Each structure stands twice: as C-alpha cells, then as structure tokens.
Amino acid sequence: MEFNSKRILRIAYCVVAFFIFSITGFYIFRNQLLHYFADRKIQHLETTYDLSIHYRQLQFNGLREIDLNEFSIVPNHRDTLLNLRSMKVKLNFLPLLIGEIELNDMSLEHLALTFVKKDSLSNYDFLFKKKNPNETAKKRGYDERVNGLLNMCYDYLPENGTLKDVLISKQKDNNKLALRFATFNVKDNHFDNEIAISEDKEPAQLLRATGVLNHFSKELQLSLTSATPYKKVFIPYLNKHYHAHVAFSSLLYSMTKSKHFSYTSLNGELMINGLEVSHKALSPEVIQLNRGRINYAVNIGSNYIELDSAQTIVQFNRLLFSPYIRAEKNNNKWHFMVGLDKPWFNSNDLFASLPQGLFGNLKGLRTTGQLAYHFLLDLDMANLNAMRLESNLSQRFFHIVSYGKTDLNRMNREFMYTAYDNGRPVRTFPIGPSWAHYTPIDSIPLIMQWAVLESEDGTFFKHHGFRLDMLRSALIYDLQKKRFARGGSTISMQIIKNVFLNRNKNIARKLEEAFIVWLIENEHITSKQRLLEVYFNIAEWAPNIYGIWEASNFYFNKRPQQLSLEECICLASLIPKPKHFTSSFGVNKETGEIILRGYYANYYRLIARLMAARGVISHAQADSIHAYVHLTGRARNSFVIHRDSTTIQQNEMILNDSIVPQAAFPPSI
User: Fold this and answer.
1) So what's the pLDDT on residue 644?
2) Picking from 111-120, 127-136, 223-232, which range would have the lowest pLDDT averaged per residue?
C-alpha cells in the first residue's frame, strides 16, 4: 500500500514537473514559437492565394497577450485589402492548453478593410478560390458549417474591447460604400456604439448599434436605429444596384445557438418597425409595414434546413401565423416542403393588416365573420410529377361590410374598360349596351361559349375562381422547362386582372388578384354568367381587336350568331396568342385562301369531343369535325397574297382602305 502511494506521488511529481517545464519553456520561447507558426501559416496563404502578407512586429507581452503592429494583406497586382496599425489581444488561458483560441480582450487601432472591384477583377477573388480538386476531404454538413461559422464569431470577438478608427469599405467601379466608426467599445459582452454609413458623396447616416455577444451562452442580440431622432435607417447599395429602396425605424435581432445530437438549433426573434420597401417587382407603390415580428426556430441538419412551425410565430400588424418550411438535399436534388394552417380568426384582422401600398384595391375594405386557411406545397425536384399542392381559404359567417377604395360590384352594371399595351392605355370603351360592339351573353352561341370554355377553363361554372390542378400542372411544366412557359389562370382570374388591376407585372398584383377573385366568387358579387359576358367583350383576339363582335367581323366578316362550329373553335384557339394570330394560318397557293394550318386537327378533335361529352354538340358532329376554316374578314389582309400583280406584305394590315403597319397595334393585355 505504501509502495503504491509513493509510486502515485512520483507520477504526480513528474506530471507537475512536466507542466512546469512546458510552461517555462513556452514562456521562454513563446515569441520564437509564435513567429514560427505565424510565418508558416503566412507562407502557406501567400503561396495558395497569391498574396503578400507583412507585419512589422508580432510578439507576446506576458503569457497571454499578443501585440501585432503594421500588419497588411495585399493580393499581388491588386489593391491593398487590409491595413492595420496596431492590435493587442488578450487570450483566455485555459482554452490555449487544448489548442483553442478565445479572445478575452482586444484593443485595435486604425483598421482599413477595403474591397475593390474594377471591371471583372477584384482584390478579394481569392476568398472564393476553389480548393485543389486533387485534395479530397469529407464534405461537411450544413449543421457543421453553421457551427463552425458561429463558433468563430463567438470565439474571435472579445468579451471586452476597444476598436478605434475602423473603416470597412467596398468599391465597385465608381460606386463606393463605407462603414466607419471612430470608437467601438465592448464591455462584458455588451456594446452600445454609433456607426457611420456612407455611399459615394452622399451625407453619411449615423446609426446606433446596441446589443450582446456572449460566447458562453451562445447568444447574439442586436438593436439598430438611427442616431438622429425621428429619422429612418436607409439600407445603402440596394438603390443604385437593384433600384430598390428599403428603410426602417428600428430593427431588433436576437439568436441563441444550441447543439443537439444530430442537428443544430437557432432560436431567436427578428422585429422591425416602420418598414418601407419599394421595388417594381413587388409593387408600383411604396410598401409600408408598421410592425413586423418573427419568433423563429430553425433546425439545421447535415442535409436539411427547416423552420419549425411549432416554435415559430410570424406577425405583421394584427395577423399572426406559424409557417413550416423545409429544404432537404439528397443526391444533389432538393426537396422543398411548405405548410401553413391558420385556424379560425377574425376576417377583418387579415384585411386590416395588409401592408399599405401592397393591395391598393383592398384598402379600406371592412368585413365581418371568420376565415381559416390551409396551404401545402410538397415539391421533390427529383420527381416533379409527384408534387402536392393544396390551398383552401374557408369562411364562416363572412360578409363584406364596405368595399373601401374599389367598388368590387362595378361589373354588375355598365362600366368603362381600358385596354393596355405594356402599361400604356390604348383603348377605352364601355362594357354595356352603349357600346355598338357589345354582345350580351344570350347573343353568343353556346358553341362559341363552350369552345372557349373547353379551351381555357372547362370547369368555370363549378370552381370558385381557382383551379389548383391547372396551377399544379403549370408549375410542373415551368420547372421542367426552367422558365415561365405556361400559366395556370382561370377565366375568373383573367377577368379580375384586366378589369381591376394595373398592368405592372409584380408579386403584389398576383396576390391582390387572388384576394379579389376569392371575394367576388365566394361572395357571389358578380354572377358566373355576367363574368363570362364580360370576358367575351374584353378578350383580345388580334392587335386592337377586342370582344367577340369585333373578332367575328375581323376574321370571318360575320356576327357572332352566324359563326359555324369550326369557326368558333378557331377563335377559341387564338385567345392565348392574339398578337401572333398569323402563325396559325397559311396561304393556299392554288386558291389564294387563308386557311388554318394542318397541325390544328388534333386540337379541333379534342375540343369537339369535350363539347360533345357535355351535350353542346352531337357525337356525330364531333366525329365529322374538320380543322378547315378560311379567313373572309379583314384579317386576311395580314398575309402575302398575290392578286392582280399586287403583293400585300405580311407585316402590314389593311384597315379602312389604308395601310397600317402591324407594329402600330397594341399587344395583348
């Protein structure tokens, strides 16, 4: 027993002696070791990234304080990236024993970090340089990448520090953006400082930044406001490069990181007040949001990122909801899932919460009753045809008290309609008896009505404004083609777009269109018959040819009631491309007739069979249908026809005995 005790003591003495000698050796040779490791790392970086890295002085003061003076990084043949006059850092001692670096205190003076890009060359290209393809390394998961980035922020930003005369700037050609602070103090992980942001020669904005950055609790808090009372913070750079304006009164952000066995969680809050956003892709007006808040919970795994609806609350103005979003990558293919279930809530909370400037036609709309909403999108890019799309806005005891800015009842009486060409009004005419070309629905043959319905929206009389099957098919087709190749709009949506909304193609218009369609269809503000009547009187069939009366006359020199079955199906086929109607026809060189091209035969048979299935025509008529029509109206003047040694060019159209270039006519709305 005594022998074992002495042996343990000897081992303990040896361990203590080893540590003493190690610490003593480290203390004596600390600067040599510091230079050795620093120079090796610098040499590696210079060789790998073609840099010149220099310092005048690098040394230890005591055991855990390092001084660095006159430090610079210059990419070869490029502008200087970093210049530092002096920096003192004090390290936490215990992490050093296991090879980890944690900053306890920092004192920094005169730092200039300058990102410069001229044409296609920049002094920071090396940051995006790909590794040698011969070097193989295990691919890190998303959770490991996030952990590494956040740990670096927490470890390398000090608990206490003073930063003086710091300038961070980005210069691209003639545009320069700069962030500067004369003094930035951090005390016990808390900071409260002023930052100046300037762009080009414009006056600098003075911002106040307060918050917490705590290494031990893995906590980040940031509050950003203008240092000038009653002024908003404007986000620079966006306006000059993206023609976007973004400003806010105050912004609060917080985040706490927690590591679990197979994933990392980020929990926190983002709150913004007095938000202003302006961009033509969103809305032609300035969008204003008084109050927006997100309490979020983001889970990050090795191959996925998800927003957890159980712990997430999104609020804008009076409306609150909890969305679920997940993006997962398997075999280089993404799988997206978006879900939202909003149980019954006061309907007026929705319309009162819509941001100002985003839905102009709904401004002032007042309602009673309750609404509930369900949405699901399950999209696997590896199997597009398996996409699931669900959307349903339910109502109970819902009623519109007042329409507000726009009278949604306007289509129930005669109203003025304006046709547009690329946002420019080109024709205004009444939709009602006072227009000579107005055609009531009972004057439009059933075969004409159903030829268009089967072509554009076969379930028009059954749906409530939307067809998810059409939207789903259109989305799958667009994703397969990797472009916007097909739309999923119903006739109701097309009418609302043309009658109520501006011609600016943006996200806000599509959302506003959906709201108005739902209101008109579900509240039965305008009957289906009247909607169809309006459609047949505003539809564009050719450049500057609107409504079924003008179309019948222009193509066949007839009135709508005189159209044959083949002519009705022909007109239905032209609605999707009125500007390019000439591509559907050809010239019979023997007879000089303008006839429909042969490849429309299958289209004719399909539409005729659908009409026969509804009892609009007989099956015998459907079986005997032929895709043969020839133009007898003014439309034939759009084609090259050799007649009496006179050639009429295809890019001209004869109207009222005068030749008018086709380019003068407006495109489809």
Assistant:
1) 43
2) 127-136
pLDDT band at residue 647 under the 50/70/90 scheme: very low
Structure tokens at 548: 């079924």
Evaluate whether residue 434 is within a structural domain.
yes
CATH code at 482? 1.10.3810.10
Number of domains, the chain: 1
Task: Indicate if the alpha-carbon torsion angle 46, 51, 54, 59 is positive or negative.
Answer: negative
Q: Which position has the token pair 């002085």? A: 57
Share of the chain above pLDDT 90, in %: 53
The residues with which 73 forms a beta bridge, in sequence order, are 53, 82
pLDDT score, position 240: 83
d(CA 586, CA 596): 6
Amino acid in the structure at residue 600 = Y
- Integer Cα distance of 629 and 598 in angstroms: 11
Residues 184, 158: contact at Cβ < 8 Å?
no
**Residues of the domain holding 644:** 418-664
CB 71 within 8 A of CB 82: yes
In a domain, 119, yes or no: no
* Whether residue 259 has pLDDT greater than 70: yes
The answer to whether 278 and 243 are in contact (CB under 8 A) is: no
The pTM of the full predicted model, rounded to 2 decimals, is 0.79
Strands (E), 62-147: 65-75, 82-91, 103-118, 121-122
Sequence-distant (≥ 6) Cβ neighbours of residue 614 within 8 angstroms: 450, 454
Mean pLDDT rounded to a whole number for the chain: 86
Tokens matching residue 250 = 């105050």
Q: Is residue 649 part of a domain?
A: yes
Between CA 623 and CA 615 the distance in angstroms is 14
Joined tokens for residue 285: 């007006």
Helix (H), strand (E) counts: the chain: 14, 33
| Phi-psi map region of 421: left, alpha, beta (phi>0 left; psi -120 to 50 alpha) | beta
What is 138-173 written as a DSSP string? PPPPHHHHHHHHHHHHHHHS-SEEEEEEEEEEEEET
CA 478 to chain CA mean position, Å: 16
Structure tokens at 182: 């004369």
The residues, any chain, with a CB within 8 Å of residue 666's CB and separated by 6 or more, are: 419, 420, 421, 422, 424, 426, 427, 543, 544
Q: What is the pLDDT of residues 186-227, one digit of tens each?
A: 998 899 999 999 998 888 899 999 999 887 788 889 999 999
Residue 13 burial by Cβ neighbours in a 10 Å radius (0-12, 13-18, 19+): exposed
Compute the distance between CA of residue 654 and CA of residue 659 in angstroms, rounded to an integer: 5
Determine the pLDDT at residue 96: 57
Residue 237 domain-assigned (yes or no): no
Q: Is the pLDDT of residue 562 over 70?
A: yes
Backbone angles phi, psi at 607, to 5 degrees: -65, -40
